[in-house]
Design goal:
By secondary structure, this protein is mainly α. The protein has seven helices and no strands. α3 crosses α4 and α3 packs parallel to α7.
């Protein structure tokens, strides 16, 4: 929004959402490649998942949905912030959500007052779904909750981001 390219895009017959979507898709692809590298390194150093091909495909789809969701959310936050530094600050808070999930330790090992927060936030069902799919344990309703959380956040972020983009582009 701070360069002349946005002015150029406004003179072209493009939907305002296309610029934001292009940025998000490019970031999605970069993050999927980075995630594949991390998984590959994990396998090289000893991670031995028991997942079937179908489980791997479901895991990849869930990870891609999660990355898409987070990318759209961070894009919307970036548009809402007044500066790149502000966007970093707002986004930094969201980086702590995995620490308040079952990603590192089981929920039952956490203080009782924290367990409801951990059980009812978006990262826990995503982590539990990926863990269950890769390790061959039962998945229960976690994948459904994970997808519902992702879709809900994705819709909100996409609508909010598109609204902010049109609003900021119109001001210039």
């Amino acid at each position: 929004m701070r360069t002349g390219i946005i002015d150029r895009f406004r003179t072209m017959p493009l939907r305002a959402d296309a610029v934001l979507t292009g940025h998000v898709v490019a970031s999605l692809l970069r993050n999927i490649v980075a995630t594949a590298v991390v998984i590959g390194v994990g396998v090289l150093v000893g991670f031995r998942p028991t997942a079937t091909f179908g489980d791997w495909m479901l895991t990849a789809a869930l990870i891609a949905l999660y990355i898409l969701t987070i990318t759209y959310l961070f894009a919307a936050i970036g548009l809402a912030a007044g500066s790149p530094e502000g966007a970093n600050g707002y986004g930094f808070v969201l980086l702590f959500l995995p620490y308040l999930s079952s990603a590192f330790v089981p929920v039952v090992s956490m203080p009782e007052w924290l367990q409801p927060v951990v059980e009812h936030q978006p990262i826990t069902p995503i982590v539990e779904s990926i863990r269950a799919l890769l390790m061959g344990t039962s998945v229960d309703s976690e994948p459904i909750l994970a997808v519902l959380w992702c879709v809900l956040i994705l819709v909100i972020a996409a609508v909010w981001g598109a609204w902010l983009f049109r609003r900021k582009a119109a001001r210039r």
